[in-house]
């Protein structure tokens, strides 16, 4: 195994409280530097190739006993290390992750320390405490200050209500606002990840990793100075059942602290990813590297794949001799479709359990789950059940055991809509319980990933993305096409996205209309195909109905056959909010996807990474009339040119997809 470790320890025994001390850690390529200053307060700054990324930014943590970690800190020891190792990643966008970084650990009197890591991709830091018993964290202070008023791509919380308390209830699904730090609305919280344009092609992505037993971090800007302040949801004091179909727990009162936790522990990583060009952002592994290692010893039973999904298409089948809806006949039809196409799973989304009861053991009379499981098993198809958060949490062990024994393969858990400490804890508890019963988990209505998918690999997907479901009701002015070419550089850095693509009704610019029972996508058919390559999604939905897919045999075959996890990923080109092109390998086959914004675009894709030899390239490209009829596409098969370059043309809102097979 590739592994190197270098450690140097410095003991400081005579430092005064007021002495200012300076420490530094650099990335292995020496381009990134974090400077840490310890004095009356602790600040850190980041430079990239000598240019300021973050100005000195104060950080601290306040405990309930009045102690402030980071105030008048007294250093007791400094430890330095260098790591070079390989992380196996069998359910990821690559089969292994190279983990190389330099690290400095600054230990303080009063039993706490700060760890700073410098990767070639970015800087991360975390607090660590070694105190006895439990501690209560009143607040964590972080004021990330910029040397100038940079442009950002920043998503607000969903809520526009006037207080932060009301904004903490949030589905974490919002488009991006492209404006300067000081121009953002400082009365609304911002969700992570978000992107800062540093100029000269450089970008900064801010997020967090290894979020466990602690609330998630929001940011809030200042309209006076270019800075972001960290904000955390306080610990819930009182909750009551309510919300969507009585499936949520709503916070009615909060404590005056953010976390009650173990005194000896590591706190979440604060992550600052710095890129020299945009395409580096679309293939960044920092969150995965910083996450806690897998706690599931045997992962051989975890089967990624695709899912025939019912909810987006409103169970709207046609050409059948039964009334389509939430009933056995409809789901048998979905199962038959999945079996014919080699699709691994069918999901029973909301509606199979009796409404308003928040009880997953009460099933509507139109659904026979044991019968459907038997029918699916005979056809080598697995079933996944949708679960409202509170219905799942209130009887978790019993529910998971019951449906595991019945033969259900996993759960899509929805409507958490919070990231305070108890809700973060819920994700870990549900991942652990499901892992014990060999059940998959797909989290919806949830905050961004922070690495739980590495710690519990049975967590195969997350929402926390403004996905295709929005087009069932979004106004005609809603711009999903631009969002599609933005998220690969921002949200996707955090982890997989259950965007739920695959629409067969495709609207060229100006033709989109929100229709709940017969929804459509914005952009072209090939755009939908390309998203199966571009978007990371180990458990990937086919959002449209079987009736539509069976009329589109070529496109359905491409979607059904495409892998959902990869051995290798190469970003070919990209620019935030404009275009992206990615190649991914699974075993011997390569897949290529490209997306553009509303501008028609010609690109030359350099495939020189391919081994020498002969290749057949199956291409799906926008048709000559795709700018008017989004469904227009053309499939063709060509030999790979000798120079290994392919020039593609995409219509406005268009896409390109290809499978490359070595002969």
Please state the structural category: alpha+beta
Major sheet attributes: 18 strands, antiparallel
Using only C-alpha atoms, the radius of gyration works out to 25 Å
In total, how many beta strands?
37
Question: What is the overall shape?
Answer: globular
The residue fraction in helices comes out at 10-25%
Please state the average pLDDT score: 96
Report the β-strand fraction as a percent range.
35-45%
> What are the segments in which pLDDT stays under 50 over at least 5 consecutive residues?
3-17
Number of helices: 13
Give the termini separation.
33 Å
Would you kindly provide a written description of the structure presented here, covering whatever features stand out?
The longest helix has 16 residues. The strands form six sheets. This protein has an 18-stranded antiparallel sheet that branches. Helix 8 links the parallel strand 24 and strand 25. The chain starts with a strand and ends with a strand. The chain is globular and about 80 Å long. The N terminus is likely disordered. It has 13 helices and 37 strands. It has 663 residues and is of the alpha+beta class.
């Amino acid at each position: 195994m590739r592994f190197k470790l270098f450690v140097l320890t410095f003991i400081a025994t005579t430092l005064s409280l007021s002495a200012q001390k300076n420490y530094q850690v650099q990335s292995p390529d020496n381009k990134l530097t974090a400077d840490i200053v310890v004095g009356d307060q602790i600040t850190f700054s980041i430079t990239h190739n000598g240019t300021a990324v973050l100005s000195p930014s104060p950080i601290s943590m306040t405990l309930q006993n009045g102690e402030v970690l980071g105030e008048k800190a007294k250093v007791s020891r400094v430890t330095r290390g260098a790591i070079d190792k390989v992380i196996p990643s069998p359910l990821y966008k690559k089969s292994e992750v190279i983990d190389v970084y330099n690290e400095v650990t600054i230990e303080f009197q009063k039993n706490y320390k700060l760890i700073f890591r410098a990767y070639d991709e970015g800087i991360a830091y975390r607090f660590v405490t070694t105190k006895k018993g439990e501690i209560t964290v009143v607040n964590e202070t972080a004021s990330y200050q910029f040397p100038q008023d940079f442009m950002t791509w920043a998503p607000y919380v969903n809520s526009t209500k006037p207080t932060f308390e009301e904004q903490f209830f949030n589905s974490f699904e919002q488009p991006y606002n492209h404006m300067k730090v000081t121009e953002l609305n400082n009365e609304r919280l911002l969700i992570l990840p978000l992107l800062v344009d540093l100029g000269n092609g450089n970008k900064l992505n801010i997020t967090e990793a290894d979020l466990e037993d602690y609330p998630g971090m929001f940011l809030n800007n200042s309209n006076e100075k270019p800075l972001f302040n960290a904000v955390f949801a306080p610990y819930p004091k009182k909750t009551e059942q309510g919300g969507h179909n009585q499936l949520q727990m709503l916070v009615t009162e909060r404590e005056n602290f953010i976390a009650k936790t173990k005194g000896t522990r590591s706190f979440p990583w604060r992550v600052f990813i710095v890129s020299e060009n945009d395409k580096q952002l679309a293939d960044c592994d920092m969150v995965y590297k910083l996450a806690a290692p897998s706690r599931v010893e045997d992962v051989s039973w975890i089967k990624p794949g695709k899912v025939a999904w019912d909810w987006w298409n409103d169970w709207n089948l046609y050409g059948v001799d039964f009334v389509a809806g939430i009933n056995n006949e409809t789901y048998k039809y979905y199962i038959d479709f999945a079996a014919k196409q080699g699709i691994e799973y069918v999901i029973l989304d909301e509606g199979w359990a009796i409404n308003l009861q928040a009880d997953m053991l009460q099933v509507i009379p139109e659904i026979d789950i044991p019968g459907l499981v038997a029918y699916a098993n005979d056809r080598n198809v697995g079933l996944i059940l949708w679960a409202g958060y509170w219905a799942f949490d209130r009887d978790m062990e019993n529910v998971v055991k019951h449906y595991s024994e019945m033969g259900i393969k996993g759960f899509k858990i929805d409507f958490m809509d919070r990231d305070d400490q108890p809700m973060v804890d819920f994700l870990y508890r549900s991942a652990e319980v499901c892992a014990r019963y060999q059940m998959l988990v797909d989290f919806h209505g949830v905050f961004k990933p922070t690495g739980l998918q590495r710690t519990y690999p049975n967590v195969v997907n997350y929402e926390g993305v403004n996905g295709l479901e929005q087009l069932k009701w979004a106004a005609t002015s809603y711009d999903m096409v631009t969002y599609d070419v933005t998220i690969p550089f921002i949200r996707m850095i955090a982890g997989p996205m259950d965007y739920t693509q695959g629409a067969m009704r495709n609207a060229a610019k100006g033709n989109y209309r929100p229709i709940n029972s017969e929804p459509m996508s914005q952009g072209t058919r090939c755009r939908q195909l390309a998203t199966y390559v571009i978007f990371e999604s180990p458990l990937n939905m086919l959002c449209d109905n079987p009736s539509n897919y069976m009329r589109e045999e070529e496109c359905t075959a491409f979607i059904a056959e495409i892998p959902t996890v990869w051995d290798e990923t190469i970003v070919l080109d990209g620019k935030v909010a404009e275009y992206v092109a990615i190649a991914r390998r699974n075993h011997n086959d390569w897949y290529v996807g490209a997306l553009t914004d509303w501008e028609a675009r010609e690109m030359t894709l350099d495939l020189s990474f391919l081994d020498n030899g002969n290749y057949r390239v199956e291409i799906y490209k926008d048709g000559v009339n795709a700018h008017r009829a989004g469904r227009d596409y053309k499939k063709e098969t060509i030999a790979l040119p000798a120079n290994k370059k392919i020039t593609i043309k995409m219509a406005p809102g268009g896409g390109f997809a290809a499978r490359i097979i070595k002969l």
